[in-house]
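In this section we walk through a basic example: taking a raw amino acid sequence and producing a predicted 3D structure, encoded as discrete structure tokens. The instruction is simple. Fold the sequence below.
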Amino acid sequence: MTFLQYVAKDLLAKHGNELADVAVVFPNKRASIFLNKALYEEAGHPVWSPAYLTISDLFRNHSDLQVPDNILLTFKLYNVYCDLLQTDETLDHFYSWGQLLLSDFDDLDKNLGDATHIFCNLEALKNMDDFSFLSDQQRASIEAFFGHVVADTVLQNQFRKIWEHLADIYHLYKKVLRQEHLAYEGMLYRDVAESKETPFRYKHYVFVGFNLLQKVEQKLFARLKDLGRAEFYWDFDKYYMPPSHQEAGRYISRYLDKFPNELSAERASEGIDPDDIYNNLSKRKDVAYISAPTENIQARYVSHWLKEKDRYRDGSRTAIVLSDESLLQTVVHCLPKEVRNVNITTGFPLSASPISTFVAFLIDLQLHGKLEGGERFRLKQINQVLRHSYAKYVSADCLSLCNEINEHKQYYPQRSFLIKGRDEALQELFENVTECDGQVPLLAWVARILKRVGVGSAHTDDPLMHEAVFRMYTLINRLDTIMALSPLSADNLSGQGVDATGRQIVSIAILQKLMSQLLQTTSIPFHGEPAKGVQIMGVLETRNLDFDHVLVLSCNEGKLPKGVNDASFIPHSLRAAYELTTVENKVAIYAYYFYSLLQRASDITLTYNNATDDGQKGEMSRFMLQLMVENEGRHLLRRLTLQSGQSASLILRNRIEKDAVVQQRLNSLLRLSPTAIYRYLHCPLQFYYHTVCKLYEDDNDDENEIDNMTFGNIFHRTAELIYRSLSQNTDRIITADEIKRLYDNSDALYEFIDNAFREKLFKVDDPRFLPKYNGIQLLNRKVIYLYIRSLLEIDMRTAPFSILSLEGDFYDDLTFTVNGHECTVQIGGQVDRLDRIECNARYLRVVDYKTGSPLTSLPSSVADIFDSSLVETRHTDYYLQAFLYASLIRHGATTMSQVNPACLPVAPALLFIRNAQKSGYTPILQFAGEKRGTRVPINDIADYHNEFIDALKNLLSEIFNPDMPFIPTPQSERCLTCPYHKICGV
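The resulting token sequence is shown next.
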């Protein structure tokens, strides 16, 4: 039998079926369902149910005061603190320690502490003659504490200043709350406990399954006992009761004389043997200690554990207890299909639901996603909202709008563009929430958007989503009723207090902190039959319940006991002296939870994480160690280890045969760039995925992130703008003096750079647009300025020269043979710069700007350029591109006639900006000479043209040959950075 079955049996024996005037009081609500079931089963027929109350209900039912949420209580405490101390401390600074102070006040009242004595100041202590109200221990603790506080340090002086006003804050705070008919829980409990005339409604109050009693609870229990209207049922085991020194029985053993147990040998009704109830831990149990390297492996073990010994068939007699409730989602997903019924007492965390991220994105859109007073929005924040799975419930136009603004990467689209021709919902979504009467109505706007989500999703069959949206909507509305958002920063909000409607004025920082805190503590309840099926619960929900099979997950030190610390304004010595709650109390409470959970179970499994990484200590709970040491030989205790069950598998990159579909796509390629050809040399499969299948990586939508490609694009565009200006878009000769004048004009250079940023990073066509640069952008802007000056230095040494083309496209047909058949494809691409050096022997340069590191190793021949193994070590891709462009301009039928009709020599050049300071630096490409350290300049591509074109034709023949599949690169290290590594070989 369970503890509650014994309670039911005894209640019916003593009160019969007349339970209408009986109120059964539990520490929590959950046990009432099981007692009700036990009463029915014991009676054998329907009986009049007693009233079921929690201890909180009992106190609150006898008070006219209301207990609001902790946020409002902390706000009111802050205002009292500021008024009393006349301080300008901001709410942001106060909030965290204000919650701590509120907790101290609550604990002080629940334990009937005297605030005036506890918060005694130094002067009062010095002038105090009569210490008779203090015990020797209290006096020693106080003297020791103030001895420490007297020390003259800045921190101690600040603490002493606050400490000396805590009693005044405490009394004024309670006065202010009482005027508004409000109270924190401890204040309400104390009022009820100290009230001389409390109109108790029921004739009998039955207190079941309590452990540690606060002094207010003891006082109320004693009054009801003195009135002959109270009965007490204690749940414990002799194993941890005196003479044992176990902390689990520390408190119940103190109360048994004061509040006698109805199930004791002297009081139990006929047919109840107390030894059957209270002597179970001495019986032999099957206990398994299982270590695991991760939390998830423990959760996945649930399926095996439930099916093993058919534990799932015992329904509500089987419990899975989560010491770490964040495992809930994984545990639910790991339930085996055999489990038909399950009851989950821990709610689904609201912070883990999609609506939580959606609200975060909405707030981010208004706080960080606007420019120019809300006339423009940032693409990153827009995408976060429009790409969210819930955006479609706001408006059906979200997807089309998202596609439209991303097609051309408009980083700062205008609000007018976003809402033009759109429905009312999108106009509201991109509303410019601005200051009104000194406040920002952000929460009201979020609530309106959430309402649209709720209405738009009403037709979907997703109860969890509907409940999550409703919870979030309620939470946002609640916040909006108690706080008003100020546009001022936290440091400028001191003394702001409340607005005309009584709402607390808060900063953006405190709003985000409160949102995060509330989401972490708000859960979505599961609906079901509580007394049916396998039970999944947290540690606190196990009180007063008994199971045959128990699995406790994450039974690690730090999680069981959980959150045991002594964080308080009142030092430990004073808390102990005045019998307030201390860390020892908390450990004892958790010890009781642990042993009471196991005491009537016969099949116990405790798992813990033995890993020592990711902040884990790898220690089993102290209670597990205690059980193991104290019960050696008594129980069947087994030590097991869970393994991941995974083994390393070799990823095989499969070749891609050129079947009819692949060959058709290959033949449809009309143009190939040097980049595409290099991609084939790097890895034929990469060429296949990118060029043939056209699978491209997503572009970056965050203008705050400037990667190497974006940086290069901005630099290239700046150089183009500069030389278009210098050449006046003609082939006029540019002199060193002209370059020097621009070199010395920083304002002009920055203007070119800003225009390049506007076009390439922010994607804004309006030349009047001037974004506010952030720190990263300013740093990159400065680096580009230095690089441009380095480029101008190099060109001053090269001048005079003429610009023939800037960022121009050059293509020519190239015919090659595949299996005896001629094929033609256009080869070419965009040339950064084509110039003509105006010296005695004029020649052309195909210049490719490089902002990266200069080459340290060079190819020695044309054959090296096409050697795929040298791609990384000698940067042969640079040579391939420069050689190809130079060959087109030197010998291409179309290109040569356009820009080189005089058939001047053409030199391929890589202009490395970082080499600007190097004496005698020339960007013209060189091959490594036969002798170590020698270089062979390539002054005219004509010297290598035939050899290069033949090698290129051979490579193209291979690419288009249907008999030669696309194979993976033999250099497997390249796969690590390949964007296709996750799909390659699938």
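Looking at the output, two observations stand out. The chain has a mean pLDDT of 89. Residues 775-798 form the longest helix (24 residues). In the next section we compare this with other chains.
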